[in-house]
Amino acid sequence: MQNAYFARPPILAPPDALAKNQPLMPVESLKIGPGREADVRLLFGLIRGITEHEKNYPTRW
Known about the structure:
The chain is mainly alpha-helical. The protein has a domain at 15-56. It is built from two helices and no strands. The longest helix has 20 residues, at 37-56.
């Protein structure tokens, strides 16, 4: 009987995408369409505002 401590882990087969050297996500899903450009600008503005606020008013933890 084999000890559980010395048991070998199972060998997992890689997904087909990794076996064939293909990307896990299609490139088309990563493209930003013209309708989303405004959302991206708003998101960057929000991140920039939070960063500036943290610089000016650091939190004390």
